[in-house]
Design a protein that fits this description.
Blueprint: H1 22-28, H2 31-34, H3 38-54, H4 60-78, H5 91-103, H6 116-152, E1 157-162, E2 165-171, H7 172-197, E3 199-200, H8 216-222, E4 227-228, H9 232-237, H10 240-267, E5 274-275, H11 294-318, H12 332-352, E6 357-358, H13 360-368, H14 374-383, H15 388-405, H16 414-418, H17 428-432, H18 434-440, H19 449-465
Parallel strand pairs: 3-4
Antiparallel strand pairs: 1-2, 5-6
Helix pairs in contact: 3-4, 3-6, 3-8, 4-5, 6-7, 6-12, 6-19, 7-10, 10-11, 10-12, 11-12, 14-15
Bound molecules: arginine.
Arginine binds near residues 34, 116, 324 and 329.
């Protein structure tokens, strides 16, 4: 990156009598990070030039010269032939300067009727829209993998927890579908956010609009925006759309982080519920036996930075008067890092989830511990005419007996159970089994294997339709 300071190189240098301080130049420049917008900056400029020619502000020949020049600049950037200059501040002025170098004076007409304020707002929206589509696809890949796994494990029994204490048996498929539901809401939020991203700010110019007879509907059409924005002051200063995206991302990451926490627990020798393939784990440099679940741990860790970026953007905006302020240049790094982090985490999860191997044996063994069918026994008593509160008390006593004897309810004899209530008969053992327990919860949203399969079918239909 060249770093020379000469007032004449600045597109805005006219009213200045001394060069920018060398440190201030580096301090205020954004080209180090906003160059990633180059593609969308050029796309926006081509649409702007096309519109300017359509309304007669540029001639068709000037438009063609500008478009060809911009395509050459793009080719230069992509071939690594472009030297980004800090003294040209940002991606916008770098590209415009190179365009003028290539095609001469016509290049200087491109900026007619626009400002960097509406230009940068347009670029970020175009860029974010593309990234949203990439993220939506990756999210869908993860959702699909989860559905396949849930279907495979629809009847696999594991303990369900509350307070991380064994509560009731559930099916692993049902547990996985809980994650699916969270991701489905995330996907919905992302599409909702996209609607508000897909609005064209260009034409707002610096803040008040422009004196040229621009056709904003045409520019919006050319760039695939749903419409042009309504208010020029709002257009150049609004960053709600980036905040909304970051809030989607923070929730998604929070979900992935909770998911990660469970995967980490489940791969431990103490739980031993699942196995992750070696390719998603790493070892220890000192303990030869270790296989660490690094991917879930890192995803859980990266949630912190994404949540932080949301707070950065909210704080960035909270004190800004209308309209554009240079503060807004600070929107990019948090947004870009959020996008990169979310894409990385989704990619890792979409690759890893279908490869999760459930250990049905240890899961079932764990479900047997902790008196997980105690509620089933209480429900059994209620169905035989006992009031629920009394049934709760009776089962509590039976559990205390089991704790003292180190035996599960299903491991007691009929005589032992009957000492707690005389309505207990032989059929009690049907409800004390794990399979009986999950199968009995056979309603919409319940954990029964058939309900899990039905939920997978509904979700798959919605995912393919949406
Ligand atoms: N690099 C600036 C940004 O990211 C572009 C807009 C600058 N506009 C201005 N009036 N200085 O926000």
């Amino acid at each position: 990156m060249s770093d020379q300071t000469k007032t004449s190189e600045k597109p805005w240098g006219g009213r200045f009598s001394e060069p920018t301080d060398a440190f201030v130049e580096r301090f205020t420049a954004s080209v180090g990070f906003d160059q990633r917008l180059y593609h969308h900056d050029i796309t926006g400029s081509i649409a702007h030039a096309t519109m300017l020619a359509a309304v007669g502000v540029l001639t068709d020949a000037e438009r063609d010269q500008i478009i060809n020049g911009l395509n050459e600049v793009k080719a230069d950037i992509e071939a690594g032939r472009f030297e980004w200059s800090v003294s040209l501040e940002d991606v916008h002025m770098n590209i415009e300067a190179r365009l003028t170098e290539r095609i001469g004076i016509t290049g200087k007409k491109l900026h007619t009727g626009r400002s960097r304020n509406d230009q940068v707002a347009t670029d970020i929206r175009l860029y974010l829209r593309d990234e949203i589509d990439v993220i939506a696809d990756e999210l869908k890949r993860l959702q699909t993998g989860l559905l396949d796994l849930a279907e495979r494990e629809a009847a696999t029994i594991m303990p369900g927890f509350t307070h991380l204490q064994t509560a009731q048996p559930v099916t692993f498929g049902h547990h996985l579908m809980a994650w699916y539901e969270m991701l489905a809401r995330d996907a919905e939020r992302l599409q909702d956010c996209r609607k508000r991203v897909n609005v064209l700010p260009l034409g707002a110019a610096a803040l008040a609009g422009t004196t040229y007879p621009i056709d904003r509907a045409m520019t919006a059409r050319l760039l695939g925006f749903d419409r042009a924005s309504e208010n020029s002051l709002d257009s150049v200063s609004d960053r709600d759309f980036a905040i909304e995206f970051c809030s989607f991302a923070a929730l998604l990451m929070t979900h992935l982080s909770r998911f990660s926490e469970e995967l980490v627990l489940w791969t431990s020798a103490q739980f031993d519920f699942i196995d992750l393939p070696d390719r998603f784990c790493t070892g220890s440099s000192i303990m030869p036996q270790k296989k660490n679940p690094d991917v879930p741990e890192l995803v859980r860790g990266k949630t912190g930075r994404v949540n932080g970026h949301l707070i950065s953007l909210l704080t960035l905006m909270k004190g800004q008067p209308l309209a554009y302020n240079k503060d807004n240049q600070e929107d990019k790094e948090p947004l870009f890092d959020t996008i990169d982090t979310v894409k990385g985490c989704l990619r890792a999860y979409a690759d890893m989830v279908p490869a999760i191997a459930a250990k049905a044996g240890p899961m079932r063994e764990a479900a047997k511990k902790g008196f997980s069918t105690a509620t089933d026994l209480a429900d059994y008593l209620v169905k035989k005419g006992v009031a629920f509160r009394d049934a709760h008390e009776i089962v509590g006593k039976a559990v205390a007996f089991g704790v003292a004897e180190s035996r599960d309810l299903s491991e007691m004899t009929l005589a032992e159970l009957a000492q707690f209530s005389d309505v207990i008969a032989d059929d009690v053992f049907d409800v004390l089994t794990l399979d009986g327990s999950v199968q009995a919860r056979n309603h919409l949203g319940g954990t029964a294997p058939d309900q899990v399969r039905a939920a997978v079918t509904r979700a798959r239909k919605q995912l393919l339709g949406g």
